[in-house]
Amino acid sequence: MSVHPTSRNLHTVDQLRAIEHAALSALGISGPELMRRAASAALSSLRRHWPQVQHVCIHCGPGNNGGDGFLLGVLAREAGLQVDMVALTASSHGDAAVARAAWESADGQVLIWNEQAVLPEAELHVDALYGIGLNRAPGAAPTRLIEAINQRGRPVLALDVPSGLDADRGSCAAAAIRADVTVTFIAGKRGLHTGRAADHVGVLELATLGVPESVCTAAAPDARLLVAESLPPRNRYANKGNYGHVLVIGGDHGMAGAVHLAGESALRAGAGLVSVATRAAHVFALNAARPELMAQGVDGPQALAAQLDRASVLALGPGLGQAAWGHALWLTALDANRPLVLDADGLNLLAREPRRFTAPTVLTPHPGEAGRLLGVTTGEVEQDRFAAAREIARRYHAVVVLKGAGSLVADPDGRLDVCPWGNPGMASGGMGDLLTGIVAALLAQGCSAWQAAGLGAGLHARAGDRAARQGERGLLASDLLAPLRALGNGMTGYERDHD
Fold first, then answer.
1. 160 is an annotated ligand-binding site residue
2. Cβ(408)–Cβ(386) under 8 Å?
3. 240-488: which CATH topology?
């Protein structure tokens, strides 16, 4: 499979349409010839992943994605496979009509899907229903077909985009194909890398179909995938003062664990010093569990002021609460105007009392917190995670890490990166506290807010993948601390890096 050096680049649907039009001109070929290339790439993927399969069923829509499917049927039969063809309509349009005619002229039969139709038995199903063209809920008949494919329990190969998944946003309006493998064509689609896409794309492959790299680079990508990185080796002449002093602020009654995790992850990510300002009742336990954390009890703003003077970076919010104690510390910390990572109740307080930041600031909301920051529902955030992340960054003048499957990193100017790592085992308490500490430690070591957010999100997710090698269920936030240290020092080879 040919992959561009620019395969990190992710595009919107409008950009992809322009790229495809430019590709036809640059290659000097017709639409059906480009479809033939897509079909050939699809057959190669099919054979590579399921070499024993002999009977496939291809499901075609009326547009170009369906055309890819019809030509795949032609090539598959020529390769000796048994092929059943299911179509949503009795005819196709545009270039897809040419592809359909090629299938029918070779005595290929087509089953038209309707209320009486029954899904053919096959070892493998191929989704060629909609591709990038669908940005709404499928109709009743396509929905029934999608559900039937999903329920059949056979492997599924999706061509370009799993049907029902929004290629722009990574959301699903209704039913969507759950593919085992998706082979996407020409260039990366941003919606295949975040949100609901995690449950629908499966293994993702990019087949460029021979399109020159210059065609894709002519359109500036809307977003990019993060790459695996670590901090450079330290100078031999170094001391703890060279690597910053992180002050973690939070831990109201009953929430000492949040500041413990944030503080320890800041240490493991390389901060020279880490202090914790918390409830006095937590200090003994924190000092006993991790003596390297300099924990001190604070009963209000005056007690916090002396610690703020010594800190170079603040990690504000883990276990903070929204009552009078937490609110007072929040106000005092923000007024110090230090480089800042804001999470958890620090974000909930920001939603109640908005402000724009002037010091380097990273906000790390999950979708619920993002909704409160924007005054919308969690569902609206998840409907378009890209727009939500960019709007929070613009509104609060901060770098944003919108957490979740395919975490997004956005800055106030609209730049956006997508994290390709992480797993559902990380859906457990304390994971966000770890991220807060990691990003704060990177800020303390001299990273910009943008660098700290991207590198921090990547290290956090990669450590989660490495820790999940023993299983996702039951993964604890503290399980990430050892791999975090290794990855931060560039010790790779323990997890799947997406370079």
1. yes
2. yes
3. UDP-N-acetylmuramoyl-L-alanine:D-glutamate ligase (3.40.1190)
Is 288 among the annotated ligand-binding positions?
no
The CA–CA distances, whole Å, from 42 to 36, 75, 127 equal 10, 10, 11
Predicted TM-score (pTM) of the model is 0.94
Mean pLDDT of the chain: 94
Domain residue spans in the chain?
A: 9-224, 240-488
Residue 67 is labelled as binding a ligand: yes
Report d(CA 388, CA 380) in Å as an integer.
9
Going by C-alpha positions, the residue among 95, 101, 103 that lies closest to residue 77 is: 103
> Structure tokens of 240?
């703890």
Is 31 one of the annotated binding-site residues? no
Reported as a single tens digit per residue, the pLDDT across 314-356 is 999 999 999 999 999 999 999 999 999 999 999 999 999 999 9
End-to-end distance of the chain based on CA atoms, in angstroms?
16
What are the tens digits of pLDDT across the range 225-281? 999 998 889 989 989 999 999 999 999 999 999 999 999 999 999 999 999 999 999
Structure tokens at 456: 């921090």
Predicted local confidence at residue 139, as pLDDT: 85
d(CA 249, CA 338): 13
What is the DSSP track for 122-176? -SEEEEES-GGG--S---HHHHHHHHHHHHH-S-EEEESS-TTB-TTTS-BSS--
Radius of gyration of the chain (CA): 26
pLDDT exceeds cutoff 60 at 5: no
In contact, 476 and 302? CB cutoff 8 Å:
no
Secondary structure E strands in 33-93: 55-60, 82-87
- Residue 250 in marked binding region: no
| Backbone angles phi and psi of 490, in degrees to 5 | 80, 15
**Residue 290 is which amino acid?**
R
User: Is 405 marked as a binding-site residue?
Assistant: yes
CA distance 103 to 109: 8
Q: What is the mean pLDDT of residues 449-462?
A: 98
Tally of CA atoms within 13 A in the half-sphere of 425 that contains its CB: 23
CATH of 9-224 given 2.60.15.10, 3.40.525.10, 3.40.50.970, 3.40.50.10260:
3.40.50.10260
Q: Parallel, antiparallel, or unpaired for β 9-11 and 223-225?
A: antiparallel
CA atoms of 180 and 201, how far apart (whole Å): 7
* 207 annotated to bind ligand: no
* 136 annotated among ligand-binding-site residues: yes
Cβ(37)–Cβ(45) below 8 Å: no
pLDDT at 136 over 80: no
